[in-house]
Amino acid sequence: MDKIVILTGAGISAESGLGTFHDEDGLWTKYPLEDVAMPEGFARDPALVQTFYNDRRKGAAEAQPNAAHFALARLQADWHGEVVIVTQNVDGLHEAGGALDVIHMHGELAQALCAFCGHRWPAPAEMAVNEPCPSCNGPGGRPDVVWFGEIPYHMDRILQHLDEADLFVAIGTSGQVYPAAGFVQEAAARGIPRLEMNLDPSETSPVFTEHRIGKATKTVPVWVREMLAHAP
Ligand code: OAD
């Protein structure tokens, strides 16, 4: 077994104090996603949307990576083959924990995107309504996060990695949002092992071949130690 592709979701950052989305007290129970995570919501009320992401950007900047983030970085560093981390998270905690080349399929809070010209730049701590774009000077600055109705980033690269993977692992994701929720199906179609680590069974649990139920800070370091101990 050489190549491992790992998909992470909000659950891996939960113990760093960041909220999940679809859980009982998740973000989408407090803020309707139609208002804060859709282009139409931004067009309707940009102030509300910028405030929502400014708060999340501040929370992410203050959060510390946890034992699960560190363990994945260690696996990446010490594994004899390739470890690809694909995350739906926009928080940057994988990199803060030492991970490299993380694929951010839902974008990053730390980046801004111009809705007019497509230019990207490091987001200021607080983005304003009509945030000016440093490239076209238009007032089109928005958080560089993927909203519902938009196409996630780097899909070609991710599907290529899945096509080459010997093991697929999903950590802390509820399997409710596609296309990420469909990656396990891609792995199943290729017949490779599929490990799920989550607090609860997810929507896609039946498609996995192994389950480790529990908090990511407990399950992930144990799994990484086992992988490194049994590596050839
Ligand atoms: P969800 O909130 O849907 O799911 C989080 C999962 O993590 C749940 O299945 C929890 O049981 C699990 N969980 C919670 N705490 C955990 C812990 N300490 N250890 C391990 N697992 C834990 O979050 P995602 O699946 O990441 O998209 O959501 C996917 C996408 O939906 C997000 O990227 C976001 C959201 O709408 C966009 O904003 C585009």
Count the domains. 2
Tell me what portion of residues adopts beta-strand conformation: 15-25%
CATH homologous superfamily label of the largest domain: TPP-binding domain
Oligomeric state: single chain
Instruction: Assign an overall shape.
Output: globular
DSSP helix fraction: 25-40%
Number of strands: 9
User: What's the CATH topology label of the largest domain?
Assistant: Rossmann fold
Structure description:
The structure is a single chain. This protein has helices at residues 27-30, 33-36, 39-44, 46-62, 67-78, 93-96, 155-164, 183-190, 216-230, and strands at residues 3-8, 82-87, 103-104, 107-114, 120-122, 141-145, 167-171, 194-198, 210-213. It is α/β, with parallel strands linked by helices and 232 residues long. The chain has two domains: 1-17 and 64-106 and 152-232, Rossmann fold, CATH 3.40.50.1220; 19-62 and 108-145, SIR2/SIRT2 'Small Domain' (2-Layer Sandwich). A six-stranded parallel beta sheet has the order 3-2-1-7-8-9, sandwiched between helices. Strands 5-4-6 form a three-stranded antiparallel beta sheet, with helices on one face. The mean pLDDT is 96. The site of 2'-O-acetyl adenosine-5-diphosphoribose has 25 residues, from loops.
